[in-house]
Description:
By secondary structure, the protein is an all-alpha fold. It is built from 20 helices and no strands.
Amino acid sequence: MQHTIVRKIRLYPLASICIPLLISAIVIWESGVLLPANTTHKNLAGSKPIAAQLTGHQSSQIDDQNNNADIETGSGMSSAGDTELAILEENTQIEAKLELETHQSIKGIDPVLANLLAAENYNALREELLKLAAVAVTQKDKKRLGYILNLLGQVSIQEQDVYSAEVYLLEALDIFQNLQDEIGVAQINLQLGRTHLKSRQIARVAGTAYDELQVGRWYLAHQMPSVAEPYIRKSIDRNLSINRFGSAASAYESLVKLFLNENNFDAAAVAAHESARMFASSGKIDRANTVLGLIPTNVNNAWQLTQLRTELDENYTRYKKGVLQIERARDYRRLYYFYKNQGDQERAWKFRLLASNSLGEVSKRTLFHRQQGVLAILFNSNDSIDQAERYFVKAQNTFDNNGLTELSDETSALNSQIY
Length: 419
């Protein structure tokens, strides 16, 4: 039955975009399930976590090499019913449990890293984990390297950077396959399944946000601003939750027009400022100035607009510097793969750390400045359905064969969330 439902959904991946008014009667819930942090077979069987096996390489042993991360770089439009609320409550419980496991695994390496995770300081956490990985490379400790890459993949998924997550996890998968570590391979398959599940979830959130914005604009065009505003605000929140800053800025622009039609100039100015800042920080300075041009200039706000235009220019300058840093990081990544293919792992990892360091000061709005359109995201996410199911089935078969009932049940529950 599950497969039948999945296939039916896949046949109409763009229906919600083509008929936004009809889709407003459908309840869609996007849950951001976090990753389980178990990364050792002993832990799966109830023994101490893998992170504890990594202890002994504390932060005092971290190399002073160059920094930071690799560049591999909600509710639907209708009100939630009882069924949706029950699903949400269940997903929240699973999420809390898995987040705690991740925290414990990171803490087993170094309590300082756990604090970074709790504070959602992903850049600093990824930097320290990469340094630990470089130490493992120097010491030729392949299993430990695989564990750390696994944790890096989990951190990337929590940050919704599914591309980086897949890169880290595929590297870890290669290590465990070469070590013929059956449970290690299953663990990575589980994480890869979650990566593709998260990719599909992000796509559906993007589709729902698009629908809500179109419905809001339809009501706005038909002179129903009080009905339009909640839809537009939902679209803004949803887009921001998946780092689609350009789409959020466009929705704010619609709010500007809504408030201007009601002669609410103060609210229009606030919305225009938010929209313009997002456009400028994403590299669209002309669009930012266009939005500001919608606000009538008078004696009271002339100085504020002048000050804001200066701020937009500064944001755009930071954006351009960030793009240069991204390009530099890509060059370092090419060198990483070159030396890795040459068999010089230590030198390769120096360039990997340099790539991460190059991205340390780049803002999220710059990192995510190029995004696919909603149609492309939804279409491409169809492949994520197959990929997630394939990885989950592999992982569950291994867990079942080794009597790891709890992990098997978790994998099955995740597999049921694919849609």
